[in-house]
Amino acid sequence: xxxxxxxxxxxxxxxxxxxxxxxxxxxxxxxxxxxxxxxxxxxxxxxxxxxxxxxxxxxxxxxxxxxxxxxxxxxxxxxxxxxxxxxxxxxxxxxxxxxxxxxxxxxxxxxxxxxxxxxxxxxxxxxxxxxxxxxxxxxxxxxxxxxxxxxxxxxxxxxxxxxxxxxxxxxxxxxxxxxxxxxxxxxxxxxxxxxxxxxxxxxxxxxxxxxxxxxxxxxxxxxxxxxxxxxxxxxxxxxxxxxxxxxxxxxxxxxxxxxxxxxxxxxxxxxxxxxxxxxxxxxxxxxxxxxxxxxxxxxxxxxxxxxxxxxxxxxxxxxxxxxxxxxxxxxxxxxxxxxxxxxxxxxxxxxxxxxxxxxxxxxxxxxxxxxxxxxxxxxxxxxxxxxxxxxxxxxxxxxxxxxxxxxxxxxxxxxxxxxxxxxxxxxxxxxxxxxxxxxxxxxxxxxxxxxxxxxxxxxxxxxxxxxxxxxxxxxxxxxxxxxxxxxxxxxxxxxxxxxxxxxxxxxxxxxxxxxxxxxxxxxxxx
Length: 526
Description:
Elements: H1 3-27, H2 45-51, H3 54-67, H4 70-75, H5 77-90, H6 109-124, H7 129-134, H8 136-165, H9 181-201, H10 204-209, H11 211-220, E1 225-229, H12 239-243, E2 249-250, E3 255-256, H13 266-270, E4 276-280, H14 283-286, H15 288-295, H16 305-321, H17 335-341, H18 354-360, H19 366-370, E5 376-378, E6 391-393, H20 406-410, H21 421-424, E7 427-434, H22 440-443, H23 450-453, E8 460-464, E9 470-474, H24 484-488, E10 497-507
Antiparallel strand pairs: 1-4, 2-3, 5-6, 7-10, 8-9
């Protein structure tokens, strides 16, 4: 097997070994896969950066310096998804010169590095919204969570219906409950952006919009192993340029832009005359001029019609990556509804505080799909732009399980810090607020007590009210804000007991265990 084919298929196999488990982990609605599989996500650069995992960042930098941008073709799920889109687009097309329609183009360095600089500066000042919108891993997470997962679940339901007709009940119906309108629009917009860019310009997203790709490009331009031309063996057939999805190969001048090359090895495998090779070729030895040329900013491209068109197209694409949000909140009809809607979002246990969570969460929605009680939901604009798409605890029809720490266990950015069981059951994410004028005990003079029965810490308990009636009372020092009371409250549309978020998470004492009295049983115990 030729070197090019061997390198290409090795890259493809490694990419599959990373991509499939990560994708299955996002779409796993029956919780078959172990939570430990989330460790594969530790190799993602933006989560490692926000989580402060210096070792991972150093490893990625070393890999880029040694071998080029293998992260983009092997480890990045968004990059692999773009390769799959490209492959699907090429199905049925004859393998002839120019069939993939890729041609060498000069890099848009003004936009590329300018966008990277803006992203870094905003991140330093605590605004991670741009990082969230451009991070390849987080975009893939939203696509997998809000598009791929519902499709898999609907497919499961169709198969379950067929099995039931044959008296086979091994599969069961599942409900898509965690997908919100805004999250769906954001996921569809990201996927559409990938498709359009891949079809017309290959890896344009990776080499223009993606902050990870731009950062790795600064390192890979000096990589030790790189793809280079053998000028004696090259016949200038152009196959390498037509197969380069990064638009980084100039076959006419026999140069390869190492900063944009994603090390997919398509060019090497397509070359039949050994005109290209992936080999040790230090930048300091033979490619100084190429590096200097690539470092220069091509401002003239903005003055040419095509350059302006590319600039405007990419700028529109950036704007399009921000979800188009329609109606985000229902019309409020009461003063209590208006007041509640002003409350801050309830962040997951382990996030420590609202501000910290906003700084570290990139809205990949992994915690949303892994939450066993489906209480985490992506947000729209109801909490402002700086909380857009990030998850909150929504006690609509469920609550946060008392001892569950799954969201903290799988979070790749450390936005939700790992908690022990003892820490989880004493972490106060919010406090229950009881509104007596809405409670059916007060309005309908009837017994209820559902909120008290579902409180795991005895923070909500019943006290005498009128006659034989009892009414809820909240001991705030015991409440952890799990939402058991709110989720079960029968009052609609505004519930009589709701959780108000703590912007800084607190800790409460464990509830005292009830004393068990020994009972002397005589005869048969009647």
